[in-house]
Amino acid sequence: MMRLALMAGVTLAVLAPIEAGLAVAGVEGLLAERDPFAGLSQRVRVFRAEPGRGVYATPPAAVQRSFNYQEFQLERAESGFRFFTLGGSSAYGVPWGSEIAFTRVLGDARALITQQTQGFVARY
C-alpha cells in the first residue's frame, strides 16, 4: 500500500507542474482540437442540429479531424430508420467505393427484408 501511495505521489509531483506549465503557456488540450472519444462522448457531438436547414450535420471541426461529412433530416419518418456504422475505411467503402461499404449493404438488406426504402445510413 505504501508503495502504491509513493508511486501516485511521484507521478503527481512530476505531471502536475508540467500540466500547470502547459496551461499557463496557453497550450490547449486534446479536447480543444478534436474529440478523443471519436464522437462517442456527450461533450463533443458528431452531429449538430441545423434547424434552419432541417438537418443534422457533421460540424466542420469533426470533418477536419476524423469524420466524413454526413447530414440527415432532423425528423425521422415514423416508419423510417437510421443506421450509424462506426469503423475504419471499410465502413465508408474505401478503397472500392460506397456502393459496397458495409453500411450500404446493411441498408440494402434491410430494404429487401422490410420492403421499406425510407431511411438514412451514416458512414464514418
**Structural classification:** alpha+beta
| Helical percentage | 40-55%
Our count of domains comes out at 2
The whole-angstrom Rg is 21 Å
Order of helices and strands: HHEEHEEHHE
Account of the protein in words:
The chain is elongated and about 65 Å long. The protein folds into 2 domains: 1-33; 35-123, no CATH class. It starts with a helix and ends with a strand. The relative contact order is 0.12. The chain is 40% helix and 14% strand. The chain has 5 helices and 5 strands; from the N terminus they run H-H-E-E-H-E-E-H-H-E. The chain has helices at 2-24, 30-33, 60-65, 89-92, 102-114; strands at residues 48-50, 55-57, 71-73, 82-85, 120-123. The protein is an alpha+beta fold. The strands form 2 sheets. A 3-stranded antiparallel beta sheet has the order 1-2-3, with no helix packed on it. Strands 4-5 form a two-stranded parallel sheet. The longest helix is centred in the first third of the chain and has 23 residues, at 2-24.
Characteristic terms for this protein:
14% strand; three-stranded antiparallel beta sheet; alpha+beta; 124 residues; two-stranded parallel ribbon; 5 strands
Summarize the topology.
Elements: H1 2-24, H2 30-33, E1 48-50, E2 55-57, H3 60-65, E3 71-73, E4 82-85, H4 89-92, H5 102-114, E5 120-123
Gist?
The chain is α+β, with helices and mostly antiparallel strands and 124 residues long. It has helices at 2-24, 30-33, 60-65, 89-92, 102-114, and strands spanning 48-50, 55-57, 71-73, 82-85, 120-123. The chain has a 3-stranded antiparallel beta sheet with strand order 1-2-3, with no helix packed on it.
